[in-house]
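To: structure desk
From: M.T.
Subject: fold request, one chain
Message: Could you run this one when you get a chance? Sequence is below, nothing fancy, just the single chain.
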Amino acid sequence: MDDPASRSANGDATGAGGDFTRATDPWALFATWMAEAEASEPNDPNAMALATAGADGLPDVRVVLLKGVDARGFVFYTNVDSAKGDELRENPQAALVLHWKSLGRQVRARGPVTRVTPEEADAYFASRARNSRLGAHASRQSRPLGDRATLEREVEALAERYGEGPVPRPENWTGFRIAPVSIEFWQNGAFRLHDRVRFTRDGETSDGETSDGGIWRGARLYP
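Reply: Done. Structure tokens follow.
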């Protein structure tokens, strides 16, 4: 079987000789893998499992969509009054994993979580389909709902209210950024002899946060 890892160009994104475990820049490697997933996955290559925990420490996990990534971290958007919003308010840290079955790959990351700026949230919200913007207003996310008809009536009422005018971002809807303290790349291998590399950054503090200017270091891991 063709090894997807061998198809990438050499350089910081994949390491010497195309060996991704020797890469030096996790963000360049992620961009390469994401581009290949976008070409290979049949649906939602940006779907990721997001794990949070509230004050009780009980883990919770769900699939959300990755909507932004750069050297500052991974961004997703949600209603802040949702279950995950409540948990992030109580315990502002999270973990994520993207799994691309068509490529036999995973990317894992974890770290502290902060809100994006209002300007970032406004820009992304404005890019959404109009019905999605109306739905964000109508949904009392994670709260009990008697039947679907109730939700649909609320969306219809909002559509009539806003007409053809702009639909503003709800005050309780925004984005969160996970600033990773570690990023791991995993490639499926025959007989479960998988390839793994985990990046951590110099300058990490005792509470798990990373100081500015830290240099990412990669370490190959046993399967």
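Reply (cont.): Residues 26-40 form the longest helix (15 residues). Let me know if you need anything else for the meeting.
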